[in-house]
Amino acid sequence: MTENTEEASDASVNETGRQNGGKDVEKNGERNRQEKPARQPDPAKKRRIKRILLIAGIVLLVLGILFFIRWWLTGRYLQSTNDAYLKADTVVVAPKVGGYVSKVYVADNQAVKAGQPLVALDARQYQAALDAARANIDSRQADIARANAQAAQQQSALLQARAQLAAAQSNAAHADIEVQRYAPLAASGADAPEHVAQLKNEQAQAHSSLQQAVAAVRSAEQQIVATAAQTRQAEAQLESARAGATQSNIDAQDTVISSAIDGSVGDKSVRVGQFVQPGTRMMSIVPVQAIYLVANFKETQVGLMRAGQPATIHVDALSGVDLHGRVESFAPGTGSQFALLPPENATGNFTKIVQRVPVRIAIDATRQTRDLLLPGLSVTVEVDTRGGKDEMQRIKREERQNSERIDNQDSGKSDERPH
User: Fold this and answer.
1) Phi, psi for 319 (deg, rounded to 5)
2) pTM of this prediction?
3) Among 375, 380, 364, 376, residue whose Cα is nearest residue 320
4) H/E run at residue 275
5) Residue 260 to residue 54: CA distance in whole angstroms
6) Following CA atoms 200, 201, 206, 210 in sequence, which dihedral angle do they give, to the nearest 10 degrees?
7) Dihedrals φ, ψ of 36, to 5°?
8) Coil/strand/helix, residue 147
9) What is the pLDDT of residues 387-416, one digit of tens each?
10) Residue 175 Cα distances to 172, 180, 229, 252, angstroms
11) pLDDT given at position 3
12) Quick check: helix, strand or coil at residue 234?
């Protein structure tokens, strides 16, 4: 038991020595670190760092000055927007007459020229109507010829009636003279009363024939007037028949629908055998070579913008390619004015919203580039508005002079008032 006690005391002494030894090592290391002198920075390195920072600051200052100068001279006049899209004045192809589609001459996305046939309709019924209209013209021309012949015949009848009238007038005058000659003789007994009675009978017959001749002349003249009216009616019917034939010819020609402009076929929905009504949308012709740009600028951006100013165009589909254009025109109102439901700010609460003005920009590009541009593509456009600076200054000067003139007029009126 004594041996165990000694071994335990020895182990305790050894453990205590190890702990004290570890503490002594730590104290010695800390003493060595405190006694070691701190390393001083290299003065040359400090000067080199200061020099680099100074040069960098000078470079940044120069770049800032240059940027400010560029912005002041040019940048503040550059107005840009990405609310811009390519557009084209697309023409919708639709028939003017109805019928069944017999032929389709073009395919999807095909390039066409103005006047090129696109679709043909069944023209048989329209050709039949044209033939009937032409036959109607022939019939009306025959009516006119018959009326002219009747007019010539009635003219001859009028001449004959006038001749008969002249003979009847002569006979009546002769009968009057005979009665006047023999009536005194019969009264004196120198002539027989029967002879005078016969002369008076002949006188009465002559006057009756004269009245018939007068009536015949009037009738012939009325017939000529009536025939002339019939001739004019036949001529009017002939003009109507010709107009009908012209319309039938137009309808027959309209069975072939042609392209009105140069462009490419798009949105084609027509098929052979399809029945189409007048106005049915069959396809669209897109004038890809006449494409233009519509940019919706904020109202705060168009103050210095004028027609003819240059523009730089970046098409999203043509990365890295800068196109050039020029401002062509401005819309006569903001986009909200032409909306389906225009805003009514006179009612309810009002929140001011910046309006946008559609600006049309013409694109100056080669034919090969235009072939790559399609309506609807997104565009970023930048317009150089420096050309409107002088005009804006002139407007400000004129308005200032106008304000001074109004103020002078108001002051003069106040001086003229009685005190």
Assistant:
1) -65, 130
2) 0.64
3) 380
4) strand 275-276
5) 70
6) 100
7) -75, 130
8) helix
9) 888 888 888 888 888 888 888 887 776 666
10) 5, 9, 40, 73
11) 43
12) helix
